[in-house]
Amino acid sequence: MNRVAEAGPATRRHLPDTDPPAVSSLCAIEVVRQERRAQTLSMTVRVRVDGSHLYLRGHFPGLPILPGVFVVETLCQAMAHGAGTGTGRWPALRSVRSLRLQAPLLDGDVLMLEIAARRHPDGGWAVTAEGSRTDGTTSARIRADFDRGDAADA
Amino acid sequence: MLEHKDVREILPQRYPLLLVDRVLELQPGRSIRTIKAISGTEPCFDGLPEGAERWRFAYPRSLMIESFGQSAALLWLDGRRAPALDDRTLMFAAARGLQFSDFAYPGDVLRHEVRLDSVVADTAFASGETWVGDRRVATIATLIATRRRVAIGPNPSPAPAPSMCRQSEEGQP
Questions:
Q1: B146 — contact with chain A (CB < 8 Å)?
Q2: Which domains does chain A have, with CATH numbers?
Q3: What is the pTM of this model?
């Protein structure tokens, strides 16, 4: 089961050993806010862009920019955290209906991703997310679908 | 066919985010077929606990998109080095209609089949599929890449750490 630790009055920080393991070295999220109900999930997560991060050293050498797909990765990690059941596979990205990357995130920037998810009749999730940069600029918009996550294929 | 050394000369990404190993076929302005082998030693699998279930080794779909996008960039560039772009950088701008139908795991080889649908000024539109053998694992209706100006922030990245291989080579007499 995912564990979180209180890191402040309204902040819950992902513990390193509980990050989604298969993606832990891509970008680690910090959960700022989470509200889950039977049919909905609302979350805010934060990612600080660290130019010394292994993946950013390759994207690009001398000019670290958060890869646009890492915004998608941030959403995947958030859904693993917020919609995972704690047993079996976490919800997996099933489709990206639309993704718009509107402003780059550079070394030192912070991505705040506001996520709203609603259950599909099949148990999966329809998700919308909007990312903003430290200066308030909208950096990304995503509409995606996740599966229910407990139908492990292995 | 372009080998990995050719891919390195064309794309600006570097380890561990250079995610095309080889170009199998390139029809300039039309289509490209590339491969990317997934290894269990890639950093994205770092930190998995002993005895981790198989599903935890599923290759991140975010990286699968990136690998497809880099293949599209190779197609857009016609397999040639990008021209000097002043302060512009080739960027992933948008996507529509990405469907994932199966997972890929270490040992699998992703094969991207990408079509260049149109190029308008500094923006390219591509589509295609990603396969593992005869299993289609992803379908991409539209992927949009562009060249953007990027302001360099105040905190430049430190130089990449040398790889273990390079250290070994340098240590040899």
A1: no
A2: 4-146 (3.10.129.10)
A3: 0.85
